[in-house]
Fold:
Amino acid sequence: MPKKSELIDERDRKILKELEEDARQTDSAIAKKIHLSKQVTNYRIQKMIESGIISNFYTLVNVGNLGLSTYYVFLKLEKINKEEEKKLLEKINSLDSIGWLVSCIGKWDIILNINEDSILNFEKTLNHIIKICGNHLFEYKFTILSEAEHLGYKFLAEKSYSRPLYQGEREKIFKLDISDEKILRGLSQDARSDLVSLSKKIKIPVHILNYRLKKLIRNGIIEGFKPKLNISKLGYQWHLLLIKLSLSNEDRKKALIEFCKVHKNIYYMTSTIGDYNFMLDVHIKSADELKVILTEIRDKFQDIVKTYESVMITNEFKIDYIPKGITTAALLFDLDGTLVGTEKFDIKLLKTILKKYELDTNLNFKGYNLDEYLSNLTNDKILQKKIKSEFVSEYELILKNIQIEINNELVKYLKIGISPLVALVTANNKKLTRQILNKTGLSKYFEIIITCEDVKHQKPHPEPYLKAMKELNVSPENCIVFEDSEIGINSAQSAGIKTVRRIAYR
Structure:
């Protein structure tokens, strides 16, 4: 049986080093750089995946550029057995704002990070965690991330490198829409997924996917694509060094940072504000190696290092660089009578057809789907079908030859992009809806379109708006609906959404 250190050779290290630089590189690109064939490179990558050396490929997301701050929380437990600790970890793991969760041996039993948009929301999450721990919580501390640098797996190559991930102060906070989130979540599961496969999975056209991905990288949302290595397979232990500085000497602090950047055992460096000033991810093969590192830090920086602690990471339960709830609020629009003034045409046409078949023309058509309206007029299914077919055919001709009036007051919200999440919820069928949107040039603004063909129940039932929220992944409190009919308003309010009524076209 080969030794753990022999599980990979020099060629594997070169491949891993390239994947560490950019995991989205193709096998061909990697092969060319390290002077191997594409086939051999692919075989070696697959072998490392199958052996568990490569756990997965993940996407690094800079949550700071999304308006979130990262808080690290350290928990010490007492009077708790393995089963109780397991249940406790499962409850913490289920919280949406938890980005990272590990169990440890040493000063702390559990370390986690929380991504929140405000100190108040962090406090709520922290209090929730404290409640989960209950009487088992002996002590806790927390720090706030100010800067982090990904230093790379130093055992892969002689030359070290670093990549800043977060710089504290943000010049600009970016808002993501549902498509951006789909891309990020798709890549979080497999950062090496090719665009065609990813496009099919998340249902976004390749050209749009490619454009948005480049934009996410350009805006600093995506910081990189990395392989997650199971270092225990390679004979390494994962330790976290927690350092408290005694004074604020910027020159000496910079010297400590430079020391960490080039140190062969330090993989990740985090600067924090709070109970600790530095967190260092360290990969070692023995306790003696750890002792050497601690001695180096103590001897070289005894003038600024007040205290230091070491914990060994035993299990990583969660690593999620893509927080939930990162998309912004949604605007949901009705079509006929709200965004466009088509009702005066379709009502006139319908009445003309109904008179032809000697049916009542006095029923209120507004807000109803055509099928529902006709079912209230006659039980004759054949006649319903005939009228509908005639109406749709004639309406299509009318739409081709008329100028459709647009509600410019509402459309301006679409044009200025006040919200990246915009949905259309209409009682029209898909064909007529598309015709109206294409003729008015409005189709490009909508993330999703819900028509009468997409739901079982029509307005005033809440299903159309419930479906829109589900597809946009937003909650009712983060939505606003624009409607013109009582039926549409009732539908939105039944779904728990705030509404803005637009006066109907005359």
Notes: The chain has three domains: 1-51, 63-167+231-319, 330-501. The longest strand covers residues 305-319.
